[in-house]
Amino acid sequence: MAEKVVIIGSGPAGWASAIYTARANLRPLVFEGAVTEENRQAGTLPLGQLALTTEVENYPGFPKGLLKPYLESAIDESRRQMMGPLSDEPHAVTGPELMELMRQQAVNFGTRIITDDIVAVDFQQRPFRLTAREGTVTEAHTVIVATGARANYLGLPSEERFKNRGVSACAVCDGALPRFRNRPLVVVGGGDSAVEEATYLTKFASIVYLVHRRDALRASKIMQQRVFNNPKIEIVWNHVVDEVLGNDEDGVTGVRLRSTVDESTRELEAAGMFLAIGHTPNTAFLQGQLELHDNGYIRLTTPFRTYTSVEGVFAAGDVADDYYRQAITAAGSGCQAALDAERYLAAQEI
Ligand code: NAP
User: Fold this and answer.
1) Domains and CATH numbers, the chain
2) Which residue CA neighbors atom 7 of ligand 1 most closely?
């Protein structure tokens, strides 16, 4: 029998839509993604981008506090080791903790979960047909796509080594951490994200080096001007990062840069390196089935709705949002997608 709602993805958008559809008695089935080395390398493991961050200080409802007793009481024991050791100190909820809490909340209301990827979809037929990596085919009357996006990294082994210890792809998530306070920081990129993140980081850093591979920024003129006018930002033109420097004790201590116009190299002292070289939405499996924008993000067809080009298929979170990209906006749109799916099913009398 076809499922009423299948949710693909397990970040905040996926779990919010699961919580809402479960409470509407639609018995949602979530494909949370597979635990594979390929997904680890790509940054697409279950629980999404938040599972790759440290403390989340901007998710409403989670001020800093003593969370250990709460986490122990709220989350099923079998899942607790997935979060890492629980801190005895007051802290802001961590990304993995927040995601486990959302997952548990969805389970509490009867959400069923399959730990696998959907690798192919057929939206021409009704019910829709979804093929998992292991080969099983699931039929569904509605689908909520919440597969998110992944930050692009440079691909250097040294960058991998210092992820979460000075290397970050999210200034808004990590910029305020103590390790970055009053220290020099590096931002890589030349688009709107790079200039926005560089500007944001000047709140904490002693100086921000904006390292860009060309001699002109891609960012909009007004955003560029903010960077040019900010005395705490120094633009390093025509350079790329060749290696992240650091050690086990301190994490990142600097970067080695290579010129893109000659063979020269130079080193910069820095406590952190923030990548802002774009994101890639996780939409490869939707090619030819759903309308996508040129940059690969799902095209939503109606303002303030989660409708896609196929009736009955809804999209939520970063997979359809290259602009806000926050946990709270993703969760909010997951709720919207759930309500849209519920109304669609009611209208179809399914
Ligand atoms: P983007 O516009 O694609 O810019 C990516 C930047 O990274 C480019 O400057 C690019 O250099 C550089 N880059 C890419 N790969 C690189 C590599 N391997 N090594 C070094 N540099 C590399 O991405 P984005 O800045 O994330 O923006 C995405 C979209 O969101 C845009 O449409 C943007 O306008 C929008 N956005 C808007 C706002 C806002 O209005 N407040 C804020 C953030 C984002 P090249 O320039 O040489 O290609």
Assistant:
1) 3-151+279-347 (3.50.50.60), 157-275 (3.50.50.60)
2) 277
